[in-house]
Specification:
Layout lengths: L1 E9 L22 H30 L5 E5 L1 H10 L1 H12 L3 E3 L14 H19 L5 E3 L7 H9 L4 E5 L2 H4 L8 E3 L6 E5 L1 H8 L14 H9 L7 E7 L13 H15 L2 E3 L2 H7 L5 E2 L21 H11 L2 H4 L5 H10 L2 H5 L9 H5 L7 H25 L19 H7 L26
Parallel strand pairs: 1-2, 1-8, 1-9, 2-3, 4-5, 5-7, 6-10
Antiparallel strand pairs: 6-7
Helix pairs in contact: 1-2, 1-3, 1-9, 2-3, 8-9, 11-16, 13-16
Length: 449
């Protein structure tokens, strides 16, 4: 039978409070505790707890025939422990069944893999330790932040001992090939690759509640029919999506939880598919070809590249400034500095600075607490300015040599607020909370709250 790999991503960043210029040097606490608690509790009630109950009921009903996988960032795990320990307990129940695989990723849901191999390795190790401590599970498969992947990343992941990696079935990599096979990295052949089938994944994650979609309403019978129509020669379909799809992005009154329970049952009863975890698929199948990915891909936006997080002047300056002190933090034992180092690396901070207001503008506003990319940049740089002073003071006190700060963009090149606000004419207007006026494009990733 063909394999069906069902994987869910869970991430919650530590959101920053409004941090003003006059706070620099006088207040070293950067986080909006109220919003962090409120959002985590809301999504726990809307999504994590009820969805986990559905999965647990499926496991009890079908036993080893139903399996699922999760990747939960370290910052999400921290917030669950702090604000919603019942979520941790519900995942422990799932872990005890033996039907769930937990994947390794970067602790902070960071972009470290694109710039700093040492920090990337440290975060992956920290995350794996956290998963083992909480759930008693030793990770063997890896997914990078936002499914970011390249040949260089493959080399680092293989060197860390992982044999399986999840990434996007991007057209610029596959061309005419199908994502419904097991592949491997061309330059690192021991690393096997599972590629997301974005069409079938997004049918659930994005199109499920779109009443103007020609296939609405999406029923379990219809969806299993699409799965059964997959070419018989193709060996695996990888359904990867944000867990918040269930109850948060797609609200409970859309019938999403009923679908979550019904479609696996229909799949199993069809007798044509076997639910397998990423590691099981990797062990069961042989790669059909090697993929050469010299330039990084991701599952974000229509371009499937890194421009959601890195590329404009705002993002580049913030990114370079943050990692200019990575060598100091690698030798640091100050718990507060290391905490902030982890939290400030979250990819969400750079995503809020994105100025792609045209093809993907609506999505870049979704769950964005800032009125413009410039506001996100100013707030982050105020926080970062205070953080850098503390880090450099620590370096001076401990005899650690500083490195010259190299900024990839010049201040003169940073778009002024008025220019960025002008760009927003093609994006949804913001009034308090951001609201999408139209549904996101099928192949575009939603970002965290």
């Amino acid at each position: 039978m063909k394999s069906l790999c069902l994987y869910f991503q869970i991430h919650q960043p530590f959101r920053l409070r409004t941090y003003r210029f006059f706070d620099i040097g006088s207040d070293h606490y950067y986080y909006d505790d109220y919003q962090n608690k409120h959002i985590v509790r809301r999504i726990a009630n809307n999504c994590y707890l009820p969805a986990n109950e559905v999965l647990l009921s499926l496991i009890k009903e079908f036993g080893a025939k139903f399996k699922v996988s999760f990747s939960i960032s370290g910052t999400a795990l921290e917030q669950f422990q702090k604000y919603s320990p019942d979520v941790i307990e519900s995942f422990k129940k799932l872990a005890k069944t033996g039907n769930v695989e937990f994947l390794a990723e970067t602790y902070s849901h960071s972009l470290a893999a694109t710039l700093n191999p040492g920090e990337f390795k440290r975060q992956v190790e920290e995350h794996s330790q956290a998963v083992e401590k909480l759930f008693g599970y030793k990770t063997t498969a890896f997914r990078n932040t936002e499914l970011i992947y390249s040949n260089d990343i493959a080399g680092m992941v293989q060197e860390m001992g992982f044999k399986t990696l999840l990434t996007e079935g991007a057209k610029q990599v596959l061309a005419w090939k199908s994502p419904n096979f097991l592949y491997c990295s061309a330059p690192h052949e021991r690393l096997k690759l599972l590629l997301r089938n974005y069409q079938l994944s997004d049918d659930i994650a994005f199109r499920f509640s779109q009443r103007d979609w020609s296939e609405w309403p999406l029923t379990a019978e219809k969806y299993v029919g699409w799965l059964n129509a997959v070419d018989k020669k193709q060996e695996v379909v990888n359904l990867f999506m944000d867990y918040e799809t269930f109850g948060e992005h797609q609200k409970a009154d859309t019938g999403i939880f009923e679908f979550l329970h019904a479609f696996p049952a229909k799949v199993i009863k069809s007798g044509k598919w076997t639910f397998r975890t990423p590691t099981e698929v990797s062990n069961e199948l042989q790669p059909v070809a090697g993929l050469n990915v010299p330039h990084a891909i991701s599952w974000a936006d229509e371009e499937r590249d890194l421009t959601a997080w890195i590329g404009n002047d705002l993002q580049d300056e913030a990114f370079a400034s943050l990692y200019s002190v990575a060598h100091i933090l690698a030798q640091c034992d100050d718990k507060d500095l290391l905490r902030d180092w982890n939290y400030l690396q979250g990819s969400d901070h750079f995503y809020y600075m994105c100025t792609k207001w045209f093809s993907d503008g609506a999505v870049h506003h979704y769950f964005n607490p800032y009125g413009s990319p410039y506001e996100a940049f100013i707030n982050y740089m105020n926080v970062l300015s205070d953080f850098l002073v503390r880090v450099n003071d620590y370096a001076d006190e401990n005899g650690i040599a500083r490195k010259a700060l190299v900024i990839r963009s010049k201040k003169a090149e940073v778009p002024p607020a008025r220019e960025i606000k002008a760009d927003k004419k093609s994006a949804p207007e913001k009034s308090g909370k951001t609201v999408l006026k139209s549904a996101p494009k099928p192949s575009v990733r939603l970002k965290k709250k």
